[in-house]
Amino acid sequence: MKFIKFTAIILVVAIIAAALSYQKIISNILLPQYIDWAFETDKEGLASGTPLNARQLSLASDIGIQKPEKVRVVYVDEVPFPYENFALKTLGEALGFIGEGVINNAQVFGYSIYVRNGFELNRAKLAHELVHVLQIERSSLDNVITQHFSDLAEYGYENAPLETEAFKANERYAAEW
Which of 8, 110, 113, 160 could bridge across to 42 with cysteines, CB 3.0–4.6 Å? Predict the structure, then answer.
């Protein structure tokens, strides 16, 4: 009986330790890996993407982007994610970035906006993505990623503060060009 009680106590302590260290694992190991990957993805997008046209540059300036000429749009079959990293893949699935039934149409990495082929990047949707560029410009890519991961875990996608700010741009710029 003592063995069972001792084993149960050890198990409870192990579960509590794992729960407490979960956030440390994410913030100290997984988040830096994702941030490094995101910086590389932005670098690739800046090299291969298409600059904004005159109307898009005007929209970016109106939104408040300080360096709209740096923004690049990259059309891809699938918006990138570090699927090859099992731990990041698991985290992405848990946060709703990727997974069964999840289609990521566009995502910003610094000044690079990756857009899934076939997704209509109309004025309102581009405004949404440009707000994410502005958020990164106001802070930094690593700070925005850290906040966004935390917000997604706490509020979900629809209510995450960075997303709600971007959704306001969808409404403000709903009129077509």
Answer: 110
